[in-house]
Amino acid sequence: MKILAYGLNYAPELTGIGKYSSELCEWLASRGHTVEVVTAHPYYPNWVLAEGYDNRSYQHEIRNRVKVRRCPLYLPRVVPTGKRGRILSHASFAISSVPKLLASVRQLRPDVLLAVTPSFLIAPMALAVSRMFATPSWLHVQDFELDAAFELGMLAGNNLRRAATSVESIILSKFDRISTISPRMMDRLHTKGAPPASTVKFRNWVDTEAISPANRMTRFREQLGLSDRHIVALYAGSIAAKQGIESLADAAAELQAKAPEVVFVFCGAGAMLKHLVKITAPLSNVKFLDLQPDERMRELLATADIHLIPQRAQISDLMLPSKLAPILASARPAVAMANPGTQLAIEIDGAGIAVPPSDREALSKAILKLAKDPGLRMRMGAHGRTLACTRWDKQIILSEFEARLVEIANRGRMHG
């Protein structure tokens, strides 16, 4: 089978969508499929061009049997915290990628064109090209960025929202297949006009062999000057507006005197990193680490006694944190900011504690509760590990997705 993947983010980006898109493509290539990718030069989450790439030109490379076509994009000089820089960046890729997308389809003649959003700005072109070449089209939605942008105030105006939602619904209804990562997000696809018969649940995943329980006394603890008496509350991932990361800073401030053994460790990068460093500067119980490569992820996750999953209430069920599956696989409990009944609260049930995103007192109490009860941490961590192995296993999820790809490819050949 020949597969052309199209999306903004790809390896060597370490977090979020790029990580999952590259793992998917490389897994499919390892299964003997021919896989090509049209993507941007790597920049996320730092919004800085990765070393070795030239943003003034197109580049090609082979990564683990996958041919990757890199396209230029606009990168603002300052990490964007508002709408303008992000929209311009996404739009620039949507435009610059058109020649490479057309060239890839002409040369490869793929059995499936798989577009990954965000950015949704690529969806119209993916759909147009698939129709032009009679190629089955598949759209995978990692999060509902338009809804999130309006809910977080990055975009505003009822008329603009109605227009954007209308266009989004039309586009969603035209793809041959549409997938997303959770049951609640599947429901939202249907309310947006995606035909239920065309939708597929395609969870993110974790390699439960690569991420497994490990000794908490890691080199990271040594690096940070922490002993076995310290309780590490770890946040690892992108540090951006949608996380509501300021709530964790408030919790650190509240627990500094009340529970000095609890140390908050932030490992990541993103638009809000400088702000987070600034507001936590007076706190002695906060430490920072740079983003870590995949080969150190097991060790990093094992460093934690408690994992932290912040999320703003406005974006509940518009996305599901990509860090969730690795956290569960590490056999450590989590404190998640999620209202009852939301997908995140459902997923974390029994493997951690969910607290309302607006209740900062409840957040501190949940962290303190786990910090004081090693038995509870062990029980919840063990349950999380079981969930990871049964619900989030990489081989099971990707094998099911491969079967769906084969199905739509075969259908495309029959109608070709």
Molecular structure report:
The protein has 416 residues and is α/β, with parallel strands linked by helices. The chain has two domains: 2-205 and 393-415, Glycogen Phosphorylase B (Rossmann fold, 3-Layer(aba) Sandwich); 219-391, Rossmann fold. Helices cover 44% and strands 18% of the residues. The chain contains 16 helices and 14 strands. The chain has helices at 16-30, 83-96, 98-108, 123-132, 145-151, 158-174, 183-191, 219-224, 246-258, 273-280, 297-303, 324-329, 343-348, 360-372, 374-391, 394-415; strands spanning 2-7, 34-40, 59-63, 66-71, 112-117, 137-141, 177-180, 199-201, 231-238, 262-269, 286-289, 306-309, 334-337, 352-355. The strands form two sheets. An eight-stranded mixed β-sheet has the order 3-4-2-1-5-6-7-8, with helices on both faces. Strands 11-10-9-12-13-14 form a six-stranded parallel β-sheet. α9 packs across α14. The longest helix is centred in the C-terminal third of the chain and has 22 residues, at 394-415. The model has no long low-confidence stretch (mean pLDDT 94).
Count of DSSP E strands? Answer: 14
- What general outline do the C-alpha atoms trace? globular
Order of strands in the sheet with most strands: 3-4-2-1-5-6-7-8
Number of helices: 16
CATH fold-level assignment of the largest domain: Rossmann fold
What's the average pLDDT? 94
Looking at CATH, the homologous superfamily of the largest domain is Glycogen Phosphorylase B
How would you briefly describe this protein structure?
This protein is an alpha/beta fold. It has helices at residues 16-30, 83-96, 98-108, 123-132, 145-151, 158-174, 183-191, 219-224, 246-258, 273-280, 297-303, 324-329, 343-348, 360-372, 374-391, 394-415, and strands at 2-7, 34-40, 59-63, 66-71, 112-117, 137-141, 177-180, 199-201, 231-238, 262-269, 286-289, 306-309, 334-337, 352-355.
